[in-house]
């Protein structure tokens, strides 16, 4: 029996650093039910309450995002809100602000931490958190970047994952706060991929491929410039075991080596 697809959102949080464009990566703890030991971006599955319609909104509408992702408006709203919620839960970064277009400058205080914990425990929703502070989802801080679908043969978890890119908001700091990671780091895509090739930073094929894509941009402004005029084509890899190793094979023929994390 094929496992059902779950909608998920992942965020490539980027900044302009001294060595050039940097991306924020987390290494998931060993023993996690999905991708344990792997380096990934902040993200996760959507929560039903991510579809709340009473959340304030700045930027491209759910209808606009529905076009970008090739889905219905409710799912598009869920995905954008899940991207904002997961980034706050896993990195302590909140892509929200006033309806006038200002980004909340600091979310590191004890009161913010209590609300972040409440989100993690599903004791409150993103809409409730934002409404209580008079804030809006800043959908204009996000751009659609990639769309990956887990193949049917992968059990027991399959995801229909939308990858967003977002600039690190000024005044905020990304923090290792999720409890699901044993390392959090800002690094250049090239450095992360070099560690992957050396076998010291295992990553799933979508992370490897999107790091290569984002690494082709000179800076954050280039990453965020524009958005796809039509739905991003979903990428569903196949897998091959050959004498030289295991590979994920993309529809365009690109091959990505599968690297298994070391167990402790």
UniProtKB/TrEMBL annotation:
What's this protein's name?
Answer: NUDIX domain-containing protein
Q: Which cofactor does it need?
A: Mg(2+); Mn(2+)
Q: Which CDD domains does this UniProt record tie to the protein?
A: NUDIX_AcylCoAdiphos_Nudt19 (cd18870)
Instruction: Give the organism's phylogenetic lineage.
Output: Bacteria, Bacillati, Actinomycetota, Actinomycetes, Geodermatophilales
The reply to whether DNA-binding figures as a keyword in the UniProt entry is no
Transmembrane ranges, per UniProt, are: none
Source species, please? Goekera deserti
Q: What molecular functions are annotated in GO for this chain?
A: hydrolase activity, acting on acid anhydrides, in phosphorus-containing anhydrides; metal ion binding
Write down the Gene3D superfamilies for this protein, in alphabetical order.
Nucleoside Triphosphate Pyrophosphohydrolase (3.90.79.10)
The record places domain Nudix hydrolase at 4-209
Keyword tags: Hydrolase, Magnesium, Manganese, Metal-binding
């Amino acid at each position: 029996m094929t496992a059902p697809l779950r909608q998920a959102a992942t965020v490539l949080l980027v900044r302009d650093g001294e060595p050039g464009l940097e991306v924020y990566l987390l290494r998931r703890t060993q023993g996690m039910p999905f991708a344990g030991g792997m380096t990934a971006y902040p993200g996760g599955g959507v929560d039903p309450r991510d579809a709340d319609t009473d959340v304030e909104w700045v930027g491209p509408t759910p209808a606009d995002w529905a076009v970008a992702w090739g889905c219905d408006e409710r799912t598009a709203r869920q995905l954008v809100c899940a991207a904002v919620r997961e980034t706050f839960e896993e990195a302590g970064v909140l892509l929200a602000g006033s309806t006038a277009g200002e980004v909340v400058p600091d979310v590191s205080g004890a009161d913010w931490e209590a609300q972040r914990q409440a989100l993690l425990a599903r004791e409150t929703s993103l809409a409730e958190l934002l409404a209580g502070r008079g804030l809006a989802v800043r959908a204009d801080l996000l751009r659609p970047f990639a769309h990956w679908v887990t193949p049917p043969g992968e059990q027991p978890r399959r995801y229909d994952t939308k990858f967003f890119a977002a600039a690190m908001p000024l005044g905020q700091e990304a923090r290792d706060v999720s409890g699901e990671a044993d390392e959090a780091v800002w690094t250049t895509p090239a450095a992360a991929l070099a560690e992957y090739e050396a076998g010291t930073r295992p990553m799933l094929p979508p992370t490897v491929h999107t790091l290569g894509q984002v690494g082709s941009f000179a800076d954050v402004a280039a990453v965020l410039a524009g958005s796809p005029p039509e739905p991003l084509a979903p990428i569903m890899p196949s897998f091959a075991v050959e004498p030289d190793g295991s590979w994920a094979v993309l529809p365009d023929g690109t091959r990505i080596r599968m690297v298994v994390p070391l167990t402790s």
